[in-house]
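Tutorial handout. Part one gives the primary structure; part two gives the three-dimensional structure as tokens.
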Amino acid sequence: MSDPVDPSGRDATTPPVSADGYLAALTGTIARVAAGQREAVARAADLVTDALRAGGVVQAFGTGHSEGLALEIAGRAGGLVPTNRIALRDLVLYGGAPVDLLSSTLERDPAVAHRLWELAPVRPPDIFVIASNSGINGAVVEFASLVKRHGHRLVAIVSAAHSARMPSRHPAGHRLADFADVLLDNGAPYGDATLPLPDGGAVGAVSSITAALLAQQIVVEVVARLLAAGETPPVYLSANVPHGDAHNSELEVRYAGRLRRGT
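Part two.
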């Protein structure tokens, strides 16, 4: 006998709409991601470690709420120093585009990817980490195609459940997953939110949290590999602890002109 299903189409055993209900749903999702993505995290860490040893930088990119993935990787206390964040706002900050160009629909325009690539401080040994919950929007997919066209490795983070149910918005029908050397599933359900509402829709999104989890797992695994080899990992201290600024500046100088901070 199958489990009962509520009007929203979700399993009726889904936790109720409450803070505790969300915590229960989130905890279950985190557990599934942690168990299911262990091997992919290890493969991603291997690629990032190889890139750093070759003098590369981790180039992180995401649009919308997936920009949080880039924030989690680049310039983060306890994170790797050779990391750079690419964002749609780079069109304004570095490309001279008008501020009113930025909108929620910009991520759907494949042409945006080419301008972002021209503005990005990318070098041959760099590796890319790109997040998109849907994995279908034109700018992200086209950017991923440019990453591979220029010979870089790509780690992609998507919601497998959501991406599978949506048609691509890329003119060639591609998805972010099509270009990934390593693909990680953030475990988010279709629509991202976890707790169904009585009249349709849902609340309690999880993709930002699980993407951050995967990002931190990759970073920690990279550091573990460097330590095991007797190498000193280039890791940020918080700028809000004594000597943090001096420590960070000393490491950043090795990557002069390649790391964008404070934007």
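Part three, for discussion. DSSP finds nine helices and seven strands in the chain. The two ends are 55 Å apart (CA to CA).
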